[in-house]
Write a structure and sequence with these properties.
Two copies of one chain form a homodimer. By secondary structure, chain A is α/β, with parallel strands linked by helices. Chain A has helices spanning about 15-25, 30-35, 65-70, 85-95, 105-120, 140-145, 160-170, 175-185, 195, 200-215, 235-240, 305-320, 360-370, 405-415; strands spanning about 5-10, 40-45, 60, 75-80, 100, 125, 150-155, 225, 245-255, 260-270, 280-290, 290-300, 345-355, 375-380, 390-400, 400, 420-430. The longest helix of chain A has 18 residues, at about 105-120. At the A-B interface, helix 1, helix 2, helix 6, strand 12 and helix 12 of A face helix 1, helix 2, helix 6, strand 12 and helix 12 of B.
Amino acid sequence: MSTGMMKIGVCGVGTVGMATLNILRGQADSIASRAGRSLSVTHVGARTQYSEHDYGAARVSQDVMDVARDPEVDILVELIGGTGVAFDLIKLAIAEGKHVVTANKALIAEHGNELIALAESAGVQIRFEASVAGGIPIIKTLREAMAANQVSEVAGIINGTGNFILTEMSTKGREFEDVLAEAQALGYAEVDPTFDIDGTDAAHKLVILASLAFGIPLSIDAPFKQGINAITPADLEYAATMGYRVKHLGIARQRAEGIEMRVHPTLIPESKQLASVDGVLNAVMIAGSEVGELVLIGPGAGGAATASSVCADLIDIARQPRSSSLALGTPVASLVAQPTIPNGEIASEWYVRLTAADQPGVMSDITHILAAHDISIESLVQQPPAAGEDQVPIVLLTHLAREAVMNEALQEIMDLEGVQPDSALIRVEGFDH
Amino acid sequence: MSTGMMKIGVCGVGTVGMATLNILRGQADSIASRAGRSLSVTHVGARTQYSEHDYGAARVSQDVMDVARDPEVDILVELIGGTGVAFDLIKLAIAEGKHVVTANKALIAEHGNELIALAESAGVQIRFEASVAGGIPIIKTLREAMAANQVSEVAGIINGTGNFILTEMSTKGREFEDVLAEAQALGYAEVDPTFDIDGTDAAHKLVILASLAFGIPLSIDAPFKQGINAITPADLEYAATMGYRVKHLGIARQRAEGIEMRVHPTLIPESKQLASVDGVLNAVMIAGSEVGELVLIGPGAGGAATASSVCADLIDIARQPRSSSLALGTPVASLVAQPTIPNGEIASEWYVRLTAADQPGVMSDITHILAAHDISIESLVQQPPAAGEDQVPIVLLTHLAREAVMNEALQEIMDLEGVQPDSALIRVEGFDH
């Protein structure tokens, strides 16, 4: 079965790129045994500042396009990131008849439909296991292991930086800004952590998961996004008191009317597996018609863990280079778009935190407004005022209500005399199927 | 890429067999889209008593060998179980040039080396994702997703019946025999539950996992086996008090001297993901050189969940029927045997429960014996005697000690005057890498 050596061009030699080179060199023999042929990096695309690294016998080009044009290269690995150079590079590599492996979630979420269609036409494969949840084989699981299932839901902790921050805030009562600074110092968060904090990174990953799960085209604009920056240590503490943990989740769910896709902080019961996934770990739950619920937990980032997925893609290609790509499980032309359900229309239970004057009538007014909007209260905790304070926190959990209705009700409550402008509104997901 | 229809023969139409037929019929269109061709069951091997089932247009044979001989059949699915007829059937199917999919862990663990070698020679594939942990894609994950890793450990809850029994005993304080009877009534446990209870079923699965993890031949006799029947509700309760849960684990670990392979009840810290996997769920942790730790959790049994894995294997074959099998990740000839470390030589921390007379000197004698064997005590709890009792339970956790040494020490302790013959010795695994 095995045939000649597979020649690999690696573009981008940051943390993941160097880890990929190290694995392909360090595990060369066992990889050759598993792939049925040897995999050799023959060309590296590296900017000047990385020229001092040891690339073995590989040719080194500062212009990454030279790697895509190299007629010797069978598979191009794109680890540059972003949607500029990386996009042009992959298009060129496909046009040159090369297979492509990438860890680039932003690029796949935004331009994946086009790139996969190009790969299909060219008869080459494009694979991107490392683009979602780092070392967790979530794409392979959705695409292959669950191929006989209708998937009804994918939900998970798919941004390690955000989960690290929430875990630190939750377990140590630390403030958001304080933990973010530490995450940057530890190298978990980017120098510009915007995409980690505002949910963009998780939304990119959710777009890819939803396409695989529901057979829909990649839809970069579909997810509703809310970041973790509005979460306070007090909310985490109240949630814990009521038996919940707060996690920043990406959730994609098949409904009769279309697809829910949303990224936001979420209260989940502490008994659920996802609730105990802490720190930089990622975890994804998949619900399938046949298998029921699967949960996969593992490192969502880190050079070696991400490179493990890059190399798994390389080995898959080397095992069956003439297989069709089916990057999203089916040919791109078979994907069927579905409407995205607007976030305002999505019903869930809710966590509401208010601060109100400790005086007669306020609670009555609040519950009256909720009742007028047909929002029923599951539990309500009014804390006693702190010494010297005349304002008290009120925390309540509601039964199912649409977000639009919750927002209307909350606005009316905030307009009440005696209610402070400080409030929190967080979805609760029980994951009870 | 897609070509003609793939014709499937299904032998064995019990719970998993019928679920497989239902999925292939009910999901025919989406499976065809994902497989690149349609999959159709054209021949069913079913004993007389199942003749009333609806097999659609499929031919039905009471002699399953007729399915293996049917020249129309491309893939034979073996869901009969056991190592008798199933073994002959698969050998015949391979000789007839058919791919094989099976859920039969006993057969793969015992005869897998031979069957896989036969399949390699015949140029057909043999796949058995459903043989371990039901709907969890643990074989695909080890074989493909972790292909760039050196695996150092696989450990998990791989017998749902046993986990259900331990969970019920632990959460409700019920006795073993009582829960077993319920498990049988619920259909979780077989009419003859011996293999679930004594660890044989888990050992079969562990043999398969260890082969995939470490690149060793399948070695049916390698695992040390201990069942769950000796566990008492009291042990579960003492363990919980000390922050541990008791799970029946299969553990395979790469050591410098060889491979540890063992199936036994184990105390694990309640903070570990595996500790909170309850009921009939299965969970497997894999530690890899690059990815670190992955944990996969899901249904380990049940018709539809197991059939989900059977169908995933069928779709994988249909996608790439000319790919080589690599059932264990590498060709069978590349597997390299390693010594199995005898259980007596394996060191771990230990949970010890004794019952002793509440009189001066006994505790001193016990601790003296432990010290003489170089066994150091991590913590020790002596319970006050129950009203009217003069015997007290003594529970202690030790630091690392080899099993052989523990057994020697325990034997000496049991010979002491004032120590009762009733005792428990259970390994503690912290999973601290």
